[in-house]
What we know:
By secondary structure, this protein is of the alpha/beta class. It has one domain (about 15-145): Rossmann fold (3-Layer(aba) Sandwich), CATH 3.40.50.960. Helix content is about 45%, strand content about 15%. It contains seven helices and four strands, in the order αβαβαβαβααα. It has helices spanning about 1-10, 30-40, 60-70, 90-105, 125-140, 150, 160-175, and strands spanning about 20-25, 45-50, 75-80, 115-120. A four-stranded parallel β-sheet has the order 2-1-3-4, sandwiched between helices. Helix 2 (about 30-40) links the parallel strand 1 (about 20-25) and strand 2. The radius of gyration is 20 Å and the shape is globular. The site of FE2/S2 (inorganic) cluster has 13 residues, from helix 4.
Amino acid sequence: MTTVIAARDSVAPAPWEPRIVVFACNWCSYAGADTAGVSRIQHQPNFRMIRVMCSGRIQPGFVFRAFEKGADGVLVSGCHFGDCHYIFGNERAVEQFEKTMRVVKLLGIDEGRLRLEWISAAEGVRFAQVIDEFTDQIRALGPSPLMVVDREVGADPEADPEVDREKEMLRCSSS
Ligand code: FES
C-alpha cells in the first residue's frame, strides 16, 4: 500500500491548460454547440458550458463566480438581435455585460478574458471558431491572475480533504 501512495504522490502536475466557462442561452448558443457536436466539427475542449434560458439572465455575479472558482476566461453567448425568444433578453445581456466588463477592468483582470458572442442554433461552425479563437487568446494571456498564487504552490482545486486524511492514516499504519 505504501508503494501505491508513493507512486501517486510522485506524479508530476499536469501542464497548465486554459479553463473557460461558457454561459450559453438555451435556444441559440447552446443549440449551436449541439450543432457543432452532431456535425462532428472539431474544436478545442477547454471549456465547460452552463446553460441558461436566455443571455439576459447572465448577471455580473455569474461571471465573477466563474473567475473566483478558477476560470481563466468567460464567454457569454446568446441569440442574434431579433432572435431572442424573450424579445429583449439579449439587449439586457449587453447592459449586464458592459457592467461586468467595467468591474472586471477595476479588478485588474485583462478584458480579453471576457467575451460576448451571438451564436445561432445553425452556427455550429461559428461556435467552433469562437471557442478555438477564445481558447488561443486565453492561452496567450496565461493563467488567471486570481488563481496564479494557488497554482504556484501546487494547490489542487479538486483536492478532497477526506482523501488526504485517508492517505495520512495509511502512512501511519504502514510505518
Ligand atoms: S433566448 Fe437566446 S438570448 Fe434570449
